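Thread: "does anyone have the structure for this chain?"

Original post by V.I.:
We have the sequence but no experimental structure in hand. Need at least a predicted one for the grant figures.
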Amino acid sequence: MQFCLDCQRAYFYPRSFCPRCGGRNIEWRKLSGEGRVLSSIVSRRALPSIEQDLPLVIALIELDEGARMMSNIVESDADQEVELDSRVRVCFRERGEYMLPMFTLVGSDS
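Reply from O.Q.:
Generated one for you, C-alpha cells below.
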C-alpha cells in the first residue's frame, strides 16, 4: 500500500499524492494485512458478471496501519451479521485478469 512519508500514514487507493496532506513524498510499503470491520452490508443483487458470488458481504475495513478500504468479506455466512470491530485478514482472489484484496474473518481461536 502507499505510505506518505510527510504525514506518516498509509492510504488506499494508489495515487500520486497523499489524500490527507497533499504530500508527494510517498513510498510503497508492505502492511500487515490485518484490520477491523467498521461497517458492512449484505448485497443480494449484482451485475451478471458476479452473480455467482451472491450474496456479497461488502465491508469498510480499517487496516491496523490506519488505511481504510472497501472490500468483500469472503468465506463467511452472509446470513449471519458481521459484527462491528470484527477482526479480519486479507486474502487475494482472482477476478478476471486481476487479483483483488478481500478479507476473511479472524476467529477468536486464531
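V.I.: this helps a lot. The chain has a mean pLDDT of 89.
O.Q.: and The CA atoms of residues 34 and 89 lie 4 Å apart.
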